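Predict the 3D structure for this chain.
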Amino acid sequence: MAAIDTLLKSMLEKGGSDLHLTVGLPPKTRASGTLQAMGDTPLDAATMEKLLKEICPPKRWQDYLERRDLDLAHEIPGVARFRGNFLYNHWGQAAVFRQIPAKILSFNDLKLPEALKKLCHLDQGLVVVTGPTGSGKSTTLAALIDYINTNLSRHIITLEDPIEFVHPVKKCVIVHREVGEHTSSFAAALKGAMRHDPDILLVGEMREMETIKLALGCASMGMLVFGTLHTNNAPKTVDRIINTFPAEEQNQVRVMLASCLAGVVAQLLCKRIPKGRCAVHEILLSHEALPNTIRSGAIANIRAIIEGNMADGMITMDASLMNRVKDGTIEAKEAYMKAANKGLFAPLLKPGDLDGH
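Done. Predicted structure below.
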């Protein structure tokens, strides 16, 4: 057993989701959204290097030393699987590990909005799942792929850095490819995927301009592409995709995006009553007014499209937050802190709710 496994198991016993390791500080875990120290003994540089090097293949370790950053997966057989990021900071080597649930949670397990099933039945287009780091994007995407795998017959290629959820054989043929192990980059994998006859592509993270451009190209060529971005809502997601490109290319990108954008699912995690966390969503689905809105650059009008078509499954983040407050899942204070229009929630606050904020 690797030395780091003891820390990871202890994290799980405390109900933690993330393990933070930094030289000069004791290990810390994030439980229910709050960082907590695991003991009083700080890590020294030698211990840190030993913990990380032991679970890293030699070639990947050399990559880490050269690039100062590395993503990889680590598994404790029979216990759990973890996504790790090795980095360097002011004090030296450091790492963060996040638990990947051993069981792929289903639509019902996650209580995902029924509207998301519409996205799974599409034949082509780009679907972007967005949200800040740690908002559960990967878990939601895994549930979408699991729904497809259970109900439809498709050829699915996942491109990740690293591979997180490994899907069992059901109705689909699923090929998992890891950047750094099976391909040199997301862009190289996407170029190759065009020749592999996929019905569905899952791009773990659309980081660079070339990756986004290739994802748009695949979606325009008749594939269903799922990707992720770190944005908070649907309008910002469209803006982010367009603004990734230089000004002289943005008109062309607007045309491509207008023709293939099939949906945006923005996700936030909130503290659940009495404990744990729950996801809330903003959902933009395809609509006849959407292509022209994107082509013309009137991105602010996307909010009106969502608000005017809530009967079809679209919903704003603030409306989702209000629904969770009304059904008693989250407190008004939590919704207020996450809301875009805080005035909606201010009348629901209790005296003292905002003390310290």
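The longest helix spans residues 137-151.
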